[in-house]
């Protein structure tokens, strides 16, 4: 007689898959929120479900808590990525007020963000587990393009966060750096397919960063994002190895199109 041994993540993966398949079979789409939490009680689950149902009556809300991995899971029947993201803001506020949240909320939707395969859901869960101890932020998981990664190097926190959210909504895995040295270190740690960099960076400037990337790993593409005037700086950026150039104030649609073109070509 064969004995099948499953670990806690495998059990959680199969359980979540059942919820997703049930929700997508009944509705056109399904949103999922995973949140690392401690000390979740049945009363906490009921309170969260009631709050989110009141917030958006169009969603069919189901909650369960995986005790082994300490992850709270919300499955939202009829939820798109946009409505699920909005619901995650409501859930985050509740969990923070009750001191239950232990890391980042990871948000996704199916089939919009990819097929809910066993390997994709396992990656989804692993990303949530790895977020434990991080800031109480909201991140996106997209199975369809999770392998396509982008590094953003910019000293402006608002610019980085804005681009990160927009690209994550498109399915890219995004990393951040606040200066040239951090970007250099992060690049060789992550090896992303694309780098978006400001030219005005401390420690290593954008030109030095581009040359370092092209010298040591010239398969990656680089988009320069800067408020410098194109005359002179554009030519120098291309000579350093940049593949494209976007000026500030930023047109996010232009940047998204160039990211898509370069990563698809790559």
TrEMBL record:
<dbReference type="InterPro" id="IPR011006">
    <property type="entry name" value="CheY-like_superfamily"/>
</dbReference>
<feature type="domain" description="Response regulatory">
    <location>
        <begin position="149"/>
        <end position="263"/>
    </location>
</feature>
<keyword id="KW-0597">Phosphoprotein</keyword>
<dbReference type="InterPro" id="IPR050595">
    <property type="entry name" value="Bact_response_regulator"/>
</dbReference>
<dbReference type="Pfam" id="PF00072">
    <property type="entry name" value="Response_reg"/>
</dbReference>
<dbReference type="InterPro" id="IPR001789">
    <property type="entry name" value="Sig_transdc_resp-reg_receiver"/>
</dbReference>
<protein>
    <submittedName>
        <fullName>Response regulator transcription factor</fullName>
    </submittedName>
</protein>
